Amino acid sequence: MSSRSFRVDLVENKNCICTCGKTITYHIPCPHVVSCVSVLRKSHYNYVSQYYILDNYKMTYVDQFHNILNRSTWAQHDPASGIHPLLPPNFRRRSGRPRTNHFRNTMDKGIGQSNRKWGACGIVGHNKATCHTRLVLSFKFFLSIMLFINVLFIICRIFFHNL
């Protein structure tokens, strides 16, 4: 569920504007407009742009397409007359993995931060490598080991001194 809200302005059977901007960009009603129109029990087809009406779409392709002439009528390669052959582009494949052509959209947003916490400090949202208290904790660990060795040394000294 999204926490964002959008404002929809409807003009009777002509135009619709939504703050998400998709209606202006694509000339078709966005999901926000469709849900508002359905609440009013109207058809969302009334808000589709004239570009997408079937008659206008057919008018796009009314003009005649010209066929390509037979290959025998094409001009031949002749450097004297200035007619040079059309060669493929000089292309060399780069090393490494090719780039992807993925364009990020709203579905590619990552999930929020983890609620896991690092056990040594108990702070949520980081781990051992990013902990700002790790130097303090490692120093405390060092002191506890030194204290243990010191106590062990005193016990050994008492034990061997009494022999």
From TrEMBL:
Domain of life: Eukaryota
InterPro entries, alphabetized: Znf_SWIM
Organism of this sequence: Dendrobium catenatum
Alphabetized UniProt keyword annotations: Membrane, Metal-binding, Transmembrane, Transmembrane helix, Zinc, Zinc-finger
The name this protein goes by in its record: SWIM-type domain-containing protein
Domain SWIM-type: 6-41
Organismal lineage: Eukaryota, Viridiplantae, Streptophyta, Embryophyta, Tracheophyta
Annotated GO MF terms: zinc ion binding
Residue spans crossing the bilayer: 141-160
